[in-house]
């Protein structure tokens, strides 16, 4: 294994490690071959390195802090913190949804009293999104429980749905919680957002500390407005280089998870910086942060900048104060990635770190494509898929399901022109390509859901999906095979019926 460029930085690190990206396979890879790891060669170097010593915890000398440490410090009213400390953190926003909300409410009432009031009716956001468009009575009942509780507590932000037959008849209804949180202005730099969903880390894109918690913790936060949390150490990922036009943020995060594995960031912050990150839109930054939990990360975080502030314009009237890592902040490891050298990747069944180049799986025959979820069901994700369909001028060869994350995304599909498409919208391009009509916005089959969930995998099929998890059973059938991919790769695969590198259509 040979190393290439090693980027040195004047930071307090003493060791360096090479980063690898997949080597192209000399021969086509069959499905069975794809079950193993691919060989590697070094074409870019990340340089993780250990701090020479643990940060000081005593004395009067103030040491630099990372973004996440600073958010923890402010939220716990401390001036200095180091990783590993347990502190009571004041919470700015608590989010829950129809799957975990009823359990959270039950714990809140059990521990604080049947007639107790929530700590702040304006800081709790309740979003039905998971099992919505179903006749499953227990799923429907969960939404009813949320509604009753929100009325009882006069919760300010409850994005209700009553008419399941037509989501557009419900102006308050949003859709997938993580994207709704962003679109409704609940993601603000420097704040603390906790949610009863592991992908709450999505909001780290805004320079916010955002993480998933369990129902018990959420029940406590509901009553007390704070939570005892351990300060995580930070891994810093420096992504530089021009992003090739066939890559999306999904490729970047799958690349990173493939490198550090699904446990590589366990209870750690993943901080993303560098010129490539600065060039990403907010939706792409969300894709990146959304999947840090797939590496075990406590949270992901991107420094707020003009892109962030512009996105927030008109979305919130709450003032916020961004924080940034100090020059002398201590990172447990730092990784450098030259994005210009990367290729489209997928995560093969059944783990998000089971990385392979898309082109190495070109012999993997697929039965369906799914474009949706908080990871891959945003407006830009559909725009990217439409771009591939448009460039090909062909029709899809397998059923292609489209599930917009939110009501706003759904409207964008019908209202926004796709750049370079002569005024055509995504919905027109999808129709011409033979895709299914965009479905009602919700989590859909990302999490399987009740049997009657739209696009649920009820057969042991092979699916290319823009979602974030490919564990056995995740999309419905326990023997289903899920290849996680970018919207570019998903659309290209739909056009061929095989896992396909989008460069076949984009160059
Ligand atoms: S879209 Fe999927 S990953 Fe996102 S919140 Fe819903 S079920 Fe979870």
UniProtKB/TrEMBL annotation:
Gene3D superfamilies: Aconitase, domain 3 (3.30.499.10). GO terms for molecular function: 3-isopropylmalate dehydratase activity; 4 iron, 4 sulfur cluster binding; metal ion binding. The keyword 4Fe-4S applies. It holds the Pfam family Aconitase. It comes from the Eukaryota. Residues 86-356, 360-497 form the Aconitase/3-isopropylmalate dehydratase large subunit alpha/beta/alpha domain. SUPFAM superfamilies: Aconitase iron-sulfur domain. GO terms for biological process: amino acid biosynthetic process; oxoacid metabolic process. InterPro entries: Acnase/IPM_dHydase_lsu_aba_1/3, Acoase/IPM_deHydtase_lsu_aba, Aconitase_4Fe-4S_dom, Homoacnase/IPMdehydase_lsu, IPM_dehydratase_rel_enz, IPMI_cat. NCBIfam families: hacA_fam (TIGR01343), PRK00402.1 (NF001614). This is 3-isopropylmalate dehydratase. It comes from Acorus calamus (Sweet flag).
